[in-house]
Amino acid sequence: MKRDSTVFVLSGVHNSLTHTKELLTCIDKQSYSNVQTVIVDDGSTDGTSIFISKNYPQVTVISGDGSLWWTGCLAKGIDHILPQAHMGDYILTVNDDCTFDEKLVKTLVTESVANDRAIVGSLAIDSRNRKSIIDAGVRLDWIRGKVVALGPKLVNDLPKTKTVRDDIDTVTTKGTLYPAEVFNNLGNFDVLHLPHYLSDYEFGCRAKRAGWKLLLSFQARVYNDTQRTGIGDNSRLRLSMLNMSRLFFWRKSKLNIADQFWFIWLCCPLRFRFRNYLIVSDRFIRHLLGLM
Q1: % pLDDT > 70, the chain
Q2: Peptide bond into 152 cis (omega under 30)
Q3: Each residue of 47-82: pLDDT tens digit?
Q4: 3-state class (DSSP) for residue 123
Q5: 3-state helix, strand, coil in the chain (%, to 5)
Q6: Which residue, 100, 7, 19, is CA-closest to 52?
Q7: N or C: which end of the chain has fewer CB within 10 A?
Q8: What is the pLDDT of residue 228?
């Protein structure tokens, strides 16, 4: 009898035990029969590892020293998973502040198999307002230097006859299923250049350039706690010099300049690269002048 592909569910955590408990509950309830969970605990001091070992002894916990950030957690987990993964297996990345129903893994695997082992991302919905869509896929507009969020914005406006979209340029790691061989072929997430944000987008771009099909499933849904997201989503707030420093240089800021410059270098077509560097620089200068 042919076995179901193993799905290794991978997440990184740091002092977020309440969310980790909710994540593990969701994983434990999956209807898919062959799931193994790997949690990278990056130096938590809130008893995360003790809780997992006591209540979920089947879960593999890998310890970090608190310096891994998100990309480092994923990379460390993937390095652990790949030697034991077989042909046909998958790795499902999911943030620890996401919850989902019992059909998530099965839905993602079914969609991937139906599309020649495509990489399949999930629809991300606001956990505090379950009518509001956070992420229904993105396109990268290199001419204007923008990440264009694709619609719809509301769950009720999702298409009735379409289960996936295939017009995306990249994926996040909020509930994305990767065939294990993707990492054997392309390498790991880029810890060196993108230690926290944008490593998921970079890897998705890398996979698409290499010929992997990227899909976003409207039926696979994760509910994300947006209030735990790093700063940068509301950059229109009036900035003090300290706040501007955090906005553009803090590791947990989505507008971190170093991350943006590296992302452009790694993903932007050469003919648009200088233009995008100018756009990022102009954005920074405008904020700086606003403080003077």
Answers
A1: 87
A2: yes
A3: 999 999 999 999 999 999 999 999 999 999 999 999
A4: strand
A5: 40, 25, 40
A6: 19
A7: N
A8: 63
Angstrom distance (rounded) from CA 93 to CA 174 = 7
Nearest Cα residue to 172 out of 241, 130, 122, 99: 122
Whether residue 23 contacts residue 50, with contact meaning beta carbons closer than 8 Å, is answered with no
Whether the CB-CB separation of 207 and 119 falls below 8 Å is answered with yes
Q: What is the pLDDT of residue 235?
A: 44
For residue 285, the one-letter residue type is: I
Two tokens at 110? 């079914």
pLDDT of residue 2: 58
Residue 268 DSSP SS3:
coil
Structure tokens at 271: 């003919």
DSSP bridge pairs for 63: 41
Residue 175: pLDDT band with limits 50, 70, 90: very high
For the chain, list the domains and their CATH numbers. 7-228 (3.90.550.60), 241-289 (no CATH)
